[in-house]
Design goal:
This protein is mainly alpha-helical. It is built from eight helices and five strands. It binds heme C. The site of heme C (HEC) has 22 residues, from helix 3, helix 4, helix 5, strand 4 and strand 5. This is C-type cytochrome, methanol metabolism-related.
């Protein structure tokens, strides 16, 4: 494991341990707070912001792209699910941010009627770890019915904070 990735995972885990538990929610969320183009709910969990004209925040757009880079092969386009893996647009209705990050970082194996269902661990995949919040807010928007299927047509510019965080995480 490259040191930068280990750091990213540690930061993720600390956030995971410090964050309040929070009830799973399935209502379109209005962000409580903005920090350099990134949005948070009242519990401090990352969320999306979609304007009335359909413009999505940068992280939601980025999450759409990252999801369709590493997750859609199993979980289906637009998080709609496949015969192989569950529809995350449904799963996220009943999962907290903490539960989501835990499954994606650690992976999960479940034995069901003679077959083993495998969610791979993405803890060492920079294309996922460095964009975990992006993927989360995209899926959250899908789960809460705030975002239709397909590529968002309008998006905010990439914030400087996103460029800085990406550089630090990728080790560029
Ligand atoms: C190789 C196929 C595969 C890939 C790629 C994959 N997953 Fe999964 N994932 C699964 C399977 C299968 C399950 C169901 C595991 C089980 O039976 O509990 C799962 C479960 C999950 C769950 C838990 C869902 C629930 O309802 O409990 C989450 C969250 C998740 N995956 C997120 C992701 C994300 C985010 C990505 C991309 C970074 C991803 N997965 C990529 C196969 C995959």
């Amino acid at each position: 494991m490259r040191p930068k990735v280990a750091v990213a995972i540690k930061v993720g885990l600390v956030a995971f341990l410090l964050a309040p538990a929070g009830e799973p929610r399935a209502e379109p969320a209005t962000p409580a707070r903005e920090e350099d183009g990134k949005f948070f709910d009242a519990e401090g969990n990352p969320t999306y912001r979609i304007k009335a004209d359909g413009t999505v925040d940068w992280y939601t757009y980025s999450g759409f792209r990252r999801y369709h880079g590493d997750c859609h092969t199993c979980h289906g386009p637009d998080a709609a699910g496949s015969s192989y893996a569950p529809a995350l647009a449904d799963s996220l209705k009943n999962m907290t941010y903490q539960q989501f990050t835990e499954v994606v970082i650690q992976g999960r194996q479940v034995a069901r009627s003679g077959n083993t269902s495998v969610m791979p661990s993405f803890g060492t995949n920079q294309n996922v770890v460095c964009y975990l919040d992006d993927i989360y807010v995209y899926l959250r928007a899908r789960a809460e019915g705030a975002l239709d299927r397909g590529r968002p047509e309008k998006r905010d510019e990439k914030p400087q904070a996103a460029k800085d965080a990406e550089k630090a995480c990728l080790g560029g």
